[in-house]
UniProtKB/TrEMBL annotation:
CDD domains: NAD_bind_Shikimate_DH. Residues 234-264 form the SDH C-terminal domain. This is Shikimate dehydrogenase (NADP(+)). Pfam families: SDH_C, Shikimate_DH, Shikimate_dh_N. Keywords: Amino-acid biosynthesis, Aromatic amino acid biosynthesis, NADP, Oxidoreductase. Residues 106-186 form the Quinate/shikimate 5-dehydrogenase/glutamyl-tRNA reductase domain. NADP(+) binds at G124, A125, G126, G127, A128, N147, R148, T149, P150, E151, K152, I211, G234. Residues 7-88 form the Shikimate dehydrogenase substrate binding N-terminal domain. The active site is at K66. Homodimer. Its EC number is 1.1.1.25. Belongs to the shikimate dehydrogenase family.
Amino acid sequence: MKKVFGVQGDPIEHSLSPAMHNAAFRKLKMDCEYHAFRVMKKNLKDAIQGAQAMGFGGLNITVPHKEKALEFTNPDTLARRIGAVNTVSFNDGIRGHNTDGLGAELALREAGVGIKSSNVVLVGAGGAARAIAFHFAEKGACVTIANRTPEKAEVLAEDVGCSHAGIEDLKGLLQDSDILINATSVGMHPHIDATIANRDILHPDLAVFDIVYNPLQTKLLHQAELAGAKPINGVAMLVHQGAEAFRIWTGQKPPVEVMRKAVLEGLD
Ligand code: ATR
């Protein structure tokens, strides 16, 4: 019988996950389909348990439910430490996972950038930054967190066991760094003229990774290019977090290029 998968969030109509996963299922000739479900906060528990009761193959959880979903799943160690779930599997009860940090690592890796022993400046202290900070620290990166609201950077750095610094120190921080990550919404459509850094504080030995994928070419990535740094856009993270969810649910090797093509077509 056909297996159903889905993403639960609110709002959800612009999600690219259905296109991405359905393309993967078609490519592997799997009798599965993936849908987007608008779920209100008060219904999240029922929606997750209902999906299990109805024999769903798996779920993604997106904004604004990633933190709340922790309560309604049995989270793995990483999801528990991050405090957020973006993937739910039903192979062994209701398990919560978080593939966002691994998605970011794989996005960098495919651009030829390794994270082990690298000096990473992570800007942001929200959900995306948390996932990246925990995963990168676990993989042996030396992470420094900077955020507009310094108290939040401090709390996250303490949770992870890494450093934090003032956002006004970005220039100095970047001098000895290998990777700059924008894990904020700065530069996202429609605020496309905003950037966390300009070319004058970037340098050619830096990889600049922006988790924003709309627009694909953010102002930050343009500034990175002008500075001779290596720009990496957020589509790769979106694709790889999805690909790792696909691997968890199905045990199959995800067809990453097919998934990427579906996302890029959806962004047009
Ligand atoms: P997400 O789950 O996508 O990470 P979030 O939890 O709302 O979203 O976090 C958004 C992040 O972007 C925060 O780090 C936020 O900084 P604050 O903690 O100071 O709010 C950051 N952010 C959003 N708009 C910003 C702006 N205009 N300038 C700087 N940082 C901004």
